[in-house]
Design goal:
This protein has 153 residues and is of the alpha+beta class. The protein has 1 helix and 11 strands; from the N terminus they run H-E-E-E-E-E-E-E-E-E-E-E. The N and C termini lie far apart (72 Å). The structure holds dinuclear copper ion. Dinuclear copper ion binds next to strand 7. The site of dinuclear copper ion has 10 residues, from strand 7.
Length: 153
């Protein structure tokens, strides 16, 4: 095999460097920013919308999407809570986007998608359906209310 030209070697090294930066930043982001959504085995219990308090700062939400609403529509939690969202749909495919949280999941009939989100700052976080699902699509909204002084958690 012929020796590599100097500029060829440069290009190969540069490509390697760029690729490693890319992979390391993916690994870094994965641990640091958001929990990577996972798909769980289907179970009928997830079709019942509910908010469960596991302890002072840990909650579980069974979120159910259907034409054209999310249930529960309002989720009250204290600041600093970590919330596991278990998401499913009762009919067509819906989207599940939590504003400011980088959450972008699909609600699919017969499937359970799960992600964990930490709410460090008080405020109202809108949940919207970002997958066109019919005439009422634009009405599909819910919200996570973090540290509402009126809430009776
Ligand atoms: Cu549900 Cu769009």
């Amino acid at each position: 095999m012929a020796a590599l030209d100097k500029s060829e070697r440069k290009v190969i090294l540069l490509t390697g460097a760029v690729l490693s930066i890319f992979f390391f930043s993916m690994l870094y982001a994965r641990g640091k920013y958001t929990d990577v959504p996972e798909c769980l085995p289907y179970d009928k219990v997830y079709e019942e919308p509910k908010v469960t308090k596991l302890d002072e700062k840990t909650y579980q939400v069974y979120a159910v999407a259907k034409m054209w609403q999310f249930e529960p529509a309002e989720i009250y939690i204290p600041t600093g809570s970590e919330v596991d969202f278990f998401l499913t749909s009762k009919d067509v495919v819906h989207g599940f986007n939590i504003n400011d949280k980088g959450v972008n999941m699909m609600a699919v009939y017969g499937n359970i998608n799960k992600t964990t989100v930490k709410f460090d700052k008080p405020g109202v976080y809108k949940i919207t359906c970002h997958e066109y699902c019919g005439t009422g699509h634009q009405n599909m909204q819910a919200q996570v209310i973090v540290n509402d002084p009126l809430a009776k958690n």
